[in-house]
Amino acid sequence: MERTLSLIKPDGVAKNIIGEVIKRFETAGIKVVAMKKLHLSQKQAEGFYAVHKERPFFKSLTEFMTSGPIVAMVLEGEDVIAKNRKLMGATNFKNAEEGTIRRDYATDIEKNVVHGSDAPETAAFEIAYFFSMMEIVG
Ligand code: CMP
User: Fold this and answer.
1) Is 115 a known active-site residue?
2) Contact 31/94 with Cβ under 8 angstroms?
3) Whole-angstrom Cα distance, residue 111 to residue 91?
4) Ligand 1 centroid – CA 21 distance (Å)
5) Which residues, including other chains, have CB under 8 Å from residue 131's CB and lie 6 or more apart?
6) How confident is the model at residue 33 (pLDDT cuts 50, 70, 90)?
7) What confidence category does residue 32 fall into, taking pLDDT thresholds of 50, 70 and 90?
8) Could you read off the pLDDT of 15-26 as tens digits, one per residue?
């Protein structure tokens, strides 16, 4: 059993597709073991995306991530990090496979609806960034 962090970004929340995204996870046999809706501060967004701080898109990305509420979830399942990334599709929706969340709903390389951890180490950091142990109910 593996866990990963999933975020529905401000564009996904604004599009009213929280339920649609969760339905895709559940249909794939993935369990939501923690969930909250929140509005990140600039500092919180910068801390979450610290690995990207030297990238040219960092300022724009953190401003976008603070532009409205997001939904954070912990997903659980076998091989869930890879499964979630497959359901999301490529970062750039133009390269995302048909039937993926980003292909269906993203409008921009930045406004790409969802985020998912990319490896066990990042999942551990990202889950702990949003949730305490007592908030995760497996
Ligand atoms: P995410 O999976 O959350 O990880 C980093 C985010 O940066 C990415 O999704 C996009 O929202 C955003 N981003 C903006 N421009 C780029 C880019 N050129 N390459 C990768 N990510 C980008």
Assistant:
1) yes
2) no
3) 10
4) 19
5) 34, 36, 72, 74
6) very high
7) very high
8) 999 999 999 999
Pocket test for ligand 1, best of 66, 109, 111, 130 (most atoms within 8 A of CB): 109
Strand order in the sheet with 31-38: 31-38, 70-77, 2-8, 114-116
Distance between Cα 109 and ligand 1 center (Å) = 6
Cβ contact 119:125 at 8 Å: no
| Tens-place pLDDT, residues 52-64 | 999 999 999 999 9
> pLDDT tens across 71-104, in order?
999 999 999 999 999 999 999 999 999 999 999 9
State how far the Cα of 33 lies from the Cα of 75, in Å rounded to an integer: 6
Of all helices (H) and strands (E), which one includes residue 127?
Answer: helix 120-130
Residue matched to tokens 């939904």: 71
Q: Confirm if 124 and 16 have CB atoms less than 8 A apart.
A: no
128 backbone dihedrals φ, ψ, rounded to 5°: -65, -25
